[in-house]
Recover the amino acids of this structure.
């Protein structure tokens, strides 16, 4: 992938399966956003391809969204803009994302954490097969992050949708993810969160202290195919989460 | 009341009706300078219309659309900031229009009327253009309303949802071009943008939804037309500028009147 003559991403192979949470991590400028934009179809890769299951519905939750102050728009109305929908469906999405209380507030007045959940509700309204979340931990405090991630976890279970998560730091999402792709212009390492946190390239990127932060015990119950696809192992309960 | 006054009122109110919702979009999308640039290019359209022997409105719409396309192309390069590109096109197209009109020696063009409007000389043909073009523009706007709002809020999100963002942006520019062609006679190309943005800006504080803001902007615009024309009759003032001054006065008023919420 080239942008403005610069190679941003090279040799990236990423797959997300239904019901699976895949996290992209990497330092600033690693190409995370570019990769996500390619998945969303917002940029066309200069080489290679993005394959989607036919009819795949993508729900995109951007990092942040600022609505011009001159536009009078309530949260409810904001949710109704993106496709023909019904009041009942909007109500359900608001409830599922836990933001019913701001439904009639101007969309510019809600807090960062509430806006995140409004954007989640918006993504849910499209009934997505794949949720793409771009650094959902940016705008919220630690408490909000934990809340948001357990919500996403619950959604993954109840809806069975795949989740592609972008994060700049592993330890906040570690316990919630099935697979991690560590990115720095190319795929440095990939695998289970535990594997990645032990990988030398990960340490090279994030420094020594990364290992101390990533306190997470993971029973390794599956093997990894060469391309990072999860292959269920023999026996053992699955203990992701 | 004389016919020409009635025609002036009808023309002004028609433009104000259309400028309400479109002007709201100009404000929401922060495209005031863009509107100005398109309006300035209208003079070139007038000259072209004379050269080709067609109605000047046709020339104006053609030049506005061509300029809008050129802008989309130039903005994609991003070598220059958007406002620099607009500034270059705005003034060079206005000057080009003035130069082109000067070349048409055989023709005496009332330049002041084109620059500042001549609302009292509105003909029945002009009225037909204003209401015909206005109806088309309004119908298009209503048809695209939800999607235009979505694109205004966030283009990337709209694109991911499968909306034809480029086409919508182009359709919006086309609507602006129609308004400019229709409003040129009323307030003149130098003042058209004010008729788009001042009523919308005045309406903002009193609106809870985009639709209320659009309708309020139309109402405020019509009030400005009535007030401006009345002042123009009473004290023998130039029509177009009087309408704009009335709109500005209503905007000042809106800033001090307490809003309901």
């Amino acid at each position: 992938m080239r942008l403005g003559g610069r190679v941003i991403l090279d040799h990236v192979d990423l797959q997300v399966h239904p019901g699976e949470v895949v996290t992209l991590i990497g330092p600033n400028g690693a190409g995370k956003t570019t990769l996500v934009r390619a998945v969303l179809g917002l940029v066309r890769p200069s080489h290679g391809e993005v394959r989607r299951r036919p009819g795949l519905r993508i729900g995109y939750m951007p990092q942040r969204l600022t609505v011009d102050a001159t536009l009078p728009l309530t949260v409810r109305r904001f949710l109704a803009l993106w496709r023909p929908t019904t009041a009942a469906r909007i109500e359900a999405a608001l409830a599922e994302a836990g933001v019913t209380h701001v439904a009639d507030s101007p969309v510019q007045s809600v807090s960062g954490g509430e806006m995140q959940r409004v954007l989640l509700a918006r993504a849910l309204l499209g009934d997505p097969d794949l949720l793409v979340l771009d650094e959902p931990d940016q705008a919220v405090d630690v408490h909000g992050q934990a809340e948001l991630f357990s919500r996403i976890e619950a959604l993954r279970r109840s809806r069975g949708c795949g989740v592609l998560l972008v994060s700049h730091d592993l330890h906040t999402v570690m316990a919630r993810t099935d697979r991690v792709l560590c990115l720095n212009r190319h795929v440095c390492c990939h695998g289970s969160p535990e594997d990645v946190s032990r990988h030398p390239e990960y340490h090279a990127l994030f420094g020594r202290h990364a290992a101390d932060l990533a306190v997470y015990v993971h029973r390794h119950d599956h093997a990894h195919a060469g391309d990072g696809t999860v292959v269920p192992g023999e026996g053992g309960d699955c203990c992701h989460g | 009341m004389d016919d020409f006054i009635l025609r002036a009122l009808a023309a002004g109110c028609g433009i104000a009706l259309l400028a309400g919702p479109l002007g709201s979009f100009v404000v929401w999308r922060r495209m005031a300078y863009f509107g100005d640039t398109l309006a300035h290019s209208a003079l070139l359209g007038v000259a072209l219309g004379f050269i080709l022997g067609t109605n000047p409105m046709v020339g104006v719409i053609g030049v506005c659309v061509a300029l809008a396309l050129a802008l989309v192309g130039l903005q994609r390069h991003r070598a220059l900031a958007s406002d620099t590109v607009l500034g270059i096109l705005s003034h060079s197209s206005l000057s080009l229009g003035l130069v082109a009109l000067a070349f048409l020696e055989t023709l005496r063009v009332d330049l002041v009327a084109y620059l500042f409007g001549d609302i009292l000389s509105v003909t029945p043909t002009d009225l037909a253009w204003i209401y015909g073009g206005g109806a088309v523009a309004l119908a298009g706007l209503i048809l695209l309303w939800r999607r235009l709002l979505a694109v205004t809020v966030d283009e990337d999100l709209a694109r991911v949802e499968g909306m034809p963002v480029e086409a919508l942006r182009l359709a919006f520019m086309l609507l602006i071009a129609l308004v400019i062609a229709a409003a040129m006679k009323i307030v003149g190309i130098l003042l058209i943008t004010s008729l788009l943005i001042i009523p919308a800006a005045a309406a903002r504080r009193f609106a809870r939804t985009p639709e209320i803001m659009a309708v309020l902007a139309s109402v405020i615009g019509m009030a400005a037309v009535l007030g401006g024309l009345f002042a123009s009759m009473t004290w023998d003032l130039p029509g177009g500028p009087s309408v704009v001054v009335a709109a500005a006065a209503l905007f000042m008023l809106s800033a001090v009147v307490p809003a309901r919420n």
